[in-house]
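Hi R.,

As promised on Friday, here is the backbone we talked about, encoded as structure tokens. Could you run it through your design pipeline when you get a chance and send me back a sequence?
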């Protein structure tokens, strides 16, 4: 169950990272409130997951899921680059996440 909670925490991290773009420097109230709520949820879920998972593994996976998800969201929502080196780099992050999961 802790792994599922950690995955959800990472997805909420993607949500708040994308939300930051929509806050327009925290000048738009609704996106700002939703972004702060996603931040709090992400951090709270990370804390719950860390009850059973090692600190280093949990934190690395949380940030990795957030990073990969944010890159994907940037491509889909904002037309960011899909350059081969960028995609390969994301693949390396995913490989690292899988390695951490397998070693835990």
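Update: got your reply. Pasting your designed sequence below so it's all in one thread:
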């Amino acid at each position: 169950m802790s792994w599922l909670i950690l995955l959800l925490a990472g997805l909420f991290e993607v949500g708040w990272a994308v939300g930051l773009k929509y806050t327009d420097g925290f000048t738009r109230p609704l996106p700002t409130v939703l972004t702060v709520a996603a931040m709090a949820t992400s951090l709270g879920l990370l804390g719950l997951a860390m009850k059973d998972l090692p600190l280093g593994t949990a934190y690395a996976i949380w940030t990795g899921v957030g990073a990969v998800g944010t890159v994907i969201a940037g491509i889909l929502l904002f037309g960011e680059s899909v350059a081969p080196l960028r995609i390969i780099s994301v693949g390396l992050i995913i490989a690292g996440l899988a390695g951490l999961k397998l070693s835990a």
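One thing I noticed while checking it: Helices lie at 2-23, 29-49, 55-78, 84-103.

Thanks again,
M.
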